[in-house]
Amino acid sequence: MKRILCFDYGEKRTGIAVSDNSHIIASPFKTILTVDIFNFIKDFLSKEEVFCLVFGLPKNLDNTNSNITDKVIDCVDKIKNRFADIPVYFEDERYTSKMAKNTILMSGVSKSKRRNKENIDKVSACLILQSFLSRKDNNKKKQTFAQ
Known about the structure:
5 helices, 24% strand, Nucleotidyltransferase, domain 5, alpha/beta, 6 strands
């Protein structure tokens, strides 16, 4: 089976996670500069088969768009134009940065690694992807296709 790539889009950095081939387990992959996102996807696709892309959709607690939501949607629109054969989905990303910080803290890594924002970004992407995989597997909700 093909892998799933997930992105925690940020204005400066974007965290990336990947699924296993069975779409059961999400793993943190890397953090890139957001300006490099299109080149990263192109390079990854030249090496791996990808089932779909997932982007964390930033929302406020009251479900309104956050200050970066429009930038994420704009980026996804550009990705869909460049990589039209690959479906793109959104996944709610509320609380993932806080959960990522807690996950890193509980893992027992050094203080310097806990403060490293790149680690937080890729762990956030991993949490977003694991949520997507769990929902997909359990069919609890209908996925929101990025239109």
